[in-house]
Structure formats: structure tokens, C-alpha cells
Write a structure and sequence with these properties.
Blueprint: H1 2-25, E1 50-52, E2 55-58, E3 61-62, E4 65-66, E5 69-71, H2 77-84, E6 103-106, E7 109-112, E8 125-127, H3 140-147, H4 157-170, H5 176-182, H6 194-208
Helix pairs in contact: 3-6
Length: 231
């Protein structure tokens, strides 16, 4: 518990430092007459998590939406997403960062959300599987996973997709070896990894050609289970 409190206090201290630096670096931004002229006009300076008794209020931006979540100091990002933000795609498998079923994107990088304290995500940009689709249209990577049946039970699929999504965001034209490396931290006990690799390579091809041609319609009469509700 002491270690958790120390990590939370460190996060609060860093956030306070960022706020102080922001105030010193751009004092004019506080002036309503000159704020519009600032490059980051309209952006709020970083603020530390608010502490209220045994709860913290964190303000991450999740899937493009600013959220305010009340959590306890020991709450993980995974629990905050599932139980406080009602985003249940990320799953807890091992709780030790070994299986990858809880992977989400935090500030542009894939992380095992079971190992990240919610307080450490305060002010962070978080993307979960729920944030990949454009309305009712799945992301090309999701479509390719469905079309190639790159899953069986589907429990690990959200984390697998997010690891591959992070790879394609950083490297739009990966080699097969790079795809294998990207998912080496994601364990699947149901199927082999060949359909996962093929789906990621196919999605990369589509994305590199400006999303390529429209994907063939998936038979709605018997959709793959993991595609119902997108994980």
C-alpha cells in the first residue's frame, strides 16, 4: 500500500510541476485579451488529480472524450476503464502484465492497463478498442480480424487488436517479423497466430492505400462472435 501511495504522490507532484511550468512559460495565456494569440489557446494546463479523502479525481481523455473519474489510490487503469468508464473491451487475464488482454493505448503507446495506476493516467490520452470504429463502421484492422477469424473465444482479442493498432499507427508498412514482435506480449491459448498476422498485414495494405477498397460485407446472418459489440 505504501508503494502505491508513493506512486500516486509522485504522479501528483509531476502534474503540479507541469502546471507550474505551463504558468511560467506562457503567462500571457492567462490574459483573455491575448489568449487567442497563443498556439495552445483554449487548452487547459495540466492539473494534478484532486484528492478527496481516500478518492482521487482523474481527468483522462478517453477515445476523444474528456472524462472525470473518481477512483481510489490503488485503482488500476484497467479497473477505472471497466468499472468507472463502462469500457469493458480490455480484459483482465493475468493481472501481472504477462498476457496482454488488457492492452490499451496511452499517449500513443500500448500499455498493459493492469499495471498502470489510474492516477498515472490523469491528463493522458487513452484509446481503447471501443474508440477504433467510426460510428457503426469497424476500423479496417477490426474488419480484417473478423474476416479472417483471427480469434476463437475472443477473450484476448481486444488486447491483440490494440497491440496491432499501435504498430500500424507507428509503422504503416510493417514486415511480418515486426507484426510478430508487436504481438509477442499478447498470449492466445485458443488459436495460432497466423490469422492474426495475416489480418494485420491486410489492414496495413488497406490503410497504406488510403483505406483501400471497401471491405466485403461480413455475413450478418452469422457474424463472428468477437465482432458482436466489437469485443
Amino acid at each position: 500500500m505504501q508503494i502505491i501511495l508513493q506512486r500516486v504522490q509522485s504522479t501528483v507532484d509531476r502534474s503540479s510541476g507541469r502546471r507550474a511550468e505551463s504558468a511560467v512559460a506562457s503567462p500571457a495565456s492567462r490574459d483573455p485579451q491575448t489568449a487567442a494569440d497563443q498556439p495552445n489557446a483554449g487548452e487547459r494546463p495540466a492539473v494534478p488529480p484532486q484528492v478527496n479523502g481516500d478518492q482521487l479525481t482523474i481527468r483522462p481523455r478517453i477515445n476523444g472524450e474528456q472524462r472525470s473519474l473518481a477512483v481510489t489510490p490503488g485503482t488500476t487503469l484497467l479497473t477505472a476503464l471497466r468499472e468507472h468508464a463502462s469500457l469493458t473491451a480490455a480484459k483482465e487475464g493475468c493481472g501481472q502484465g504477462d498476457c496482454g488482454s488488457c492492452v490499451v493505448i496511452m499517449n500513443g503507446r500500448p500499455v498493459n492497463s493492469c499495471l498502470v495506476l489510474a492516477a498515472e493516467a490523469d491528463g493522458a490520452e487513452i484509446t481503447t478498442l471501443e474508440g477504433l470504429a467510426d460510428g457503426e463502421r469497424l476500423h479496417p484492422l477490426q474488419e480484417e480480424f473478423c474476416r479472417r477469424w483471427s480469434f476463437q473465444c475472443g477473450y484476448c482479442t481486444p488486447g491483440m487488436v490494440m497491440s496491432c493498432f499501435a504498430l500500424l499507427a507507428a509503422n504503416p508498412d510493417p514486415t511480418e517479423a515486426e507484426v510478430r514482435e508487436a504481438v509477442e506480449g499478447n498470449l492466445c491459448r485458443c488459436t495460432n497466430y497466423r490469422p492474426i498476422i495475416e489480418a494485420t498485414m491486410a489492414a496495413a495494405s488497406r490503410l497504406s492505400s488510403d483505406h483501400g477498397p471497401a471491405a466485403p460485407t461480413i455475413d450478418s446472418a452469422s457474424p463472428p462472435v468477437a465482432c458482436e459489440g466489437r469485443g
